[in-house]
């Protein structure tokens, strides 16, 4: 639901006032509706000469029946920059985007595809490919009208892994993901999927599932076909049960910091389902205080819930061989873990630790044809953020390129993309769901 200010500036008088006084003008973002088209409008694709992703892009657009006709405006621009070998050739970006960027419609997309700089064959190519980041982040700040810009680095040999990521970025599922750099490597064979039900037959554990972002994650994974096992603390059993049963899923209560919780979770998954395909570590807490007033209890509880318990649960699942082939582990970090935040030394430490955890486990899981990634939400409209004092809340909400807070569904859709069986090439990524927040950018 849009916040009050967004509702106000989206009526004709409010829009006029906001424009004349120079106030932020958040536009209503397109969000995915089941059964809707991948892209609601035309897509223009271009490439620098010698690019290697043209076929992969064309296949995604053709499979999704995307409208490729020339027009006055476009919903999305896609540019294959893998052919750019030197700084001078970066002009190919300008030549494609300069005449077309103002033709992008509301809630539109600019997507650039490149080669990971470390895979470049020459220093000149490495410079040019690294330069794409600055380009995309600036486009994100210029593009307006609720549109986004993102960069995908596709490793040589991983061209066949592009579909799930390109589909996610093109679609309204990525409404609040902007200025991100996503890396795709070789994730092995890509299964043929029903894109409306990619998780059919899969078991998904979601911690902290009784409310807020966790409830949205549970609903989204269930929508995509998964049987969701929701987990939350015993005092929230009634809420948890209502969420899980409403989705045709099941539930389990545990305090994830309890000494026996990893064993209990592992045993439950083994007994009831024989293993697990998707694990979403969403449970998290804040216990804010400035460092000078930070007591041991506040510090340790946040570290234990937000990061230590994730490691313990992962280890129990790995030791019990309960992660099925192609399993997807997704963690919830935060932009506080990237940018830091006054009053949140404990929380930011824990959420930066989550990023370290993704780095540490990614190679381990790759050996088992599994992946681990994290989302780092920015300002998301939840009960938690509704309690923030008005001025701080308004600042949090507006200080991003989309001038609005995200919704729990935006985090959930990003997690669903990581969770897809077609996302095997997406491993070790941390993707911010923050509308290009100015914090830590
Ligand atoms: P929330 O407080 O509404 O939900 C968190 C859930 O985790 C609750 O259901 C809670 O009971 C559960 N939980 C907490 N401790 C637990 C424990 N020891 N064992 C089991 N379950 C436990 O918060 P939310 O806003 O929905 O946040 C979800 C996640 O997103 C958290 O990890 C949070 O840090 C992260 N996040 C939120 C925002 C935001 O703007 N709301 C921004 C960045 C990151």
List keywords for this structure.
seven-stranded parallel sheet, alpha/beta, globular, binds nicotinamide-adenine-dinucleotide
Explain what you see.
The protein has 441 residues and is of the alpha/beta class. It has 15 helices and twelve strands. The chain has helices at residues 4-9, 12-21, 54-63, 91-97, 123-142, 162-170, 212-223, 237-246, 261-273, 296-319, 336-339, 345-367, 383-386, 390-398, 408-419, and strands at 43-47, 74-80, 104-114, 148-154, 181-184, 203-207, 227-232, 250-253, 276-281, 323-332, 371-377, 430-433. The strands form two sheets. Strands 8-7-6-9-10-11-12 form a seven-stranded parallel beta sheet, sandwiched between helices. A five-stranded parallel beta sheet has the order 1-2-3-4-5, sandwiched between helices. α5 (123-142) links the parallel β3 and β4 (148-154). The chain is globular. The two termini are 26 Å apart. Nicotinamide-adenine-dinucleotide is lined by residues 207-208, 210-214, 232-233, 236, 255-257, 282-285, 305, 332, 334, 377, 379-380, 382-385. Nicotinamide-adenine-dinucleotide (NAD) binds next to α7 and α13.
């Amino acid at each position: 639901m849009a916040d009050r200010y967004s509702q106000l500036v989206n009526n004709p008088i409010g829009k006029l006032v906001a424009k004349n006084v120079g106030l932020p003008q958040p536009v209503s973002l397109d969000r995915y509706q089941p059964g809707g088209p991948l892209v609601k409008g035309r897509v223009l694709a271009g490439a620098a000469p010698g690019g290697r992703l043209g076929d992969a892009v064309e296949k995604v657009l053709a499979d999704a029946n995307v409208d490729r006709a020339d027009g006055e405006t476009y919903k999305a621009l896609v540019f294959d920059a893998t052919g750019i070998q030197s700084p001078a050739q970066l002009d190919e970006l300008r030549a494609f985007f300069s005449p077309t960027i103002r033709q992008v419609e509301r809630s539109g997309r600019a997507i650039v595809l490149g080669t990971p700089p470390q895979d470049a064959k020459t220093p000149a190519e490495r410079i040019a490919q690294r330069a794409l980041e600055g380009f995309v982040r600036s486009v994100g700040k210029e593009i307006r009208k609720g549109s986004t810009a993102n960069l995908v680095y596709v490793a040589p040999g991983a061209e066949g892994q592009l579909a799930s990521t390109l589909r996610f970025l093109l679609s309204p599922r990525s409404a609040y993901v902007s200025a991100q750099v996503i890396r795709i490597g070789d994730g092995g064979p890509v299964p043929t999927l029903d894109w409306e039900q990619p998780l059919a037959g899969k078991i998904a554990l979601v911690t902290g599932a009784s409310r807020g972002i966790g409830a949205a994650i549970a609903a989204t994974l269930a929508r995509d076909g998964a049987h969701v096992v929701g987990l939350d603390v015993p005092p929230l059993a009634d809420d948890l049960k209502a969420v899980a049963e409403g989705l045709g899923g099941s539930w389990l209560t545990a305090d994830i910091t309890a000494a026996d919780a990893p064993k209990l979770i592992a045993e439950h998954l083994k007994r009831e389902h024989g293993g697990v395909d998707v694990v979403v570590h969403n449970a998290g807490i804040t216990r804010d205080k400035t460092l000078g007033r930070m007591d041991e209890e506040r510090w340790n509880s946040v570290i234990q819930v937000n990061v230590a318990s994730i490691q313990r649960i992962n280890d129990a699942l790995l030791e019990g061989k309960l992660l099925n082939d192609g399993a997807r582990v997704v963690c919830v970090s935060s932009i506080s873990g990237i940018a830091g935040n006054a009053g949140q030394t404990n929380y930011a430490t824990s959420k930066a630790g989550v990023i370290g955890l993704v780095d540490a486990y990614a190679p381990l899981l790759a050996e088992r044809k599994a992946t681990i990634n994290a989302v780092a939400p920015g300002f998301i409209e939840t009960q938690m953020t509704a309690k923030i004092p008005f001025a701080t809340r308004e600042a949090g909400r507006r200080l991003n390129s989309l001038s609005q807070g995200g919704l729990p569904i935006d985090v959930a859709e990003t997690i669903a993309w990581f969770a897809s069986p077609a996302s095997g090439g997406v491993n070790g990524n941390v993707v911010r769901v923050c509308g290009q927040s100015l914090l830590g950018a």
